[in-house]
Amino acid sequence: MRRKLFEVLTVSVLITALLAGCSEKNIEETEAEAAASVASSAEEKEMTPADMRVGVFIYKLSDTYMSLFKDELIKDLVNAGFKEENITVVNSAFSHGYQMLQLKKVISSGVDILVVNPVNMSKTAEVTDLAMEAGVPLVYVNREPEASEEIRWESENLPVTYIGCDARQAGTFQGKMLIDLGFENIDKNGDGVLQYIMVKGEKNSADTYFRTRYSIEALKNAGWSVEKLAEGNGNWDKNVSEYVVTEALAENPSVEVIICNNDMMAVGALEAVNKAGLEAGKDVYIIGADAFEVALEKILEGKIVGTVFNNYVEQARLTTGTILSYMKKQNVAHFYGSDYVKVTKENAETILGIIREDEESDAQQEE
Ligand code: GAL
After folding, report:
1. 107-139 residue pLDDT tens
2. What is the DSSP annotation of 123-185?
3. Position 44 confidence tier, pLDDT thresholds 50, 70, 90
4. What is the reported pLDDT for 362?
5. Which helix (H) or strand (E) holds 233?
6. What's the rounded Cα separation, in Å, for the pair 284 and 253?
7. Which residues of 138-168 are buried (b: 16+ CB within 10 A; e: fewer)?
8. Reduced to 3 states, what is the DSSP secondary structure of residue 286?
9. How many CB atoms lie within 10 A of CB 279?
């Protein structure tokens, strides 16, 4: 764009000079002046965080993890010099159509970078095309677009990237934490088989698919025999999970482990277990993912056996860093990963410390 402007100006300077019958020296001088003025106006156009208009689209703001991430991201951006009034946050209300509509609206009113937590991970080609047509770099977060799309960003060299975790790792860590408890300790009925209930996140989610699959694979790889008594979609939500687990427990009261794709569902499962008159951490073991404060407290009480820290603090920082790199026109990779951390009673206090320290610094900033 800038190069084109320079070429157009140079040509027009030349034409003007020729028409005016200038000497060659004069033409050179005039060209140099024009080049200098283009360069300085280009410099003027160099964006700073304070000028950047950022559009942040969250698949559903009632989702605990995404709401934590969104707050953290805004805090980081403001710390980096972005103006809060230039950050537009859109709750996509779990509707792909609505997300597309709002994207068009924000693009037409002017935006310099888009952060998108897509509603439908199989339809991100539409989101990407929209952003690319508008010439706006795009950062996907947390809900990973399909691999074919990531390959396209690479092959077409598109300013598009993804920041998030590898859900396989979360599943594997859940399995490993159960293994660490010792088979003989959790095979309550001593039949040599681990009976479990699986509480899954929403359908068609990579996190749901991989966390479910890899948790069980880790157990099988350790030579454990497992039997699924029931499964259901808790949609990442505490109340839905409580309902799913209540139903499952009515049919299968002798379950040994309840594996949940996230912590809100683990907390919902715990409610159901309590109401069924079972003792969590003794009669039945519950495991989650995310490391939400509420789950960490239950881990410390021995009611939930473990979780994996889905580090929203780090992911928000990576997102801010990537936005700054796009702004400075630096090289940006097409994927930035954040590692999960296994959390049990041993380190729950430390992780709680990280989260609370972050909350305290937020509170201090607000004072
Ligand atoms: C996961 C997270 C869940 C939920 C989900 C939304 O990474 O563990 O709690 O937020 O993303 O897609």
Report:
1. 999 999 999 999 999 999 999 999 999 999 999
2. -HHHHHHHHHHTT--EEEESSPPPHHHHHHHHHTT-SEEEEE--HHHHHHHHHHHHHHH-HHH
3. low
4. 67
5. strand 226-233
6. 10
7. bbbbbbbbeeebbebbeeeebbbbbbbbbbb
8. strand
9. 11
The values of phi and psi at residue 72, to 5°, are -65, -40
Which residues does 102 contact at the CB level (< 8 Å), separation at least 6?
57, 90, 92
Angle between helix 263-275 and helix 293-300 axes, rounded to 10 deg: 50
Q: Write down the pLDDT at residue 271.
A: 98
What is the CB < 6 Å shell around ligand 1? Answer: 63, 65-66, 142-143, 201, 205, 207, 236, 262, 289-290, 310
Express each pLDDT in 58-76 by its tens digit: 999 999 999 999 999 999 9
Stated pTM of the model: 0.86
Q: Around Cβ 28, how many Cβ atoms within 10 Å?
A: 12
Task: Give the residue carrying structure tokens 């320079």.
Answer: 6
Q: Which domains does the chain have, with CATH numbers?
A: 54-165+311-333 (3.40.50.2300), 168-309 (3.40.50.2300)
Round to whole Å and give the CA distance between 252 and 324.
52
Token output for 221:
């790889």
pLDDT in tens, 260-317: 999 999 999 999 999 999 999 999 999 999 999 999 999 999 999 999 999 999 999 9
Give the pairing type, strands 54-58 and 257-260: unpaired
Instruction: Kindly give the number of the ligand 1 atom that is closest to the alpha carbon of 66.
Output: 10
> Rounded to the nearest whole angstrom, what is the distance from the C-alpha of residue 252 to the centroid of ligand 1?
27
- Per DSSP, what are the bridge partners of residue 195? 227
Kindly give the distance from the C-alpha atom of residue 223 to the centroid of ligand 1, in angstroms, as a whole number: 29
61 Cα–ligand 1 center, Å = 11
Parallel, antiparallel, or unpaired: how do β-strands 335-337 and 226-233 relate? Answer: unpaired
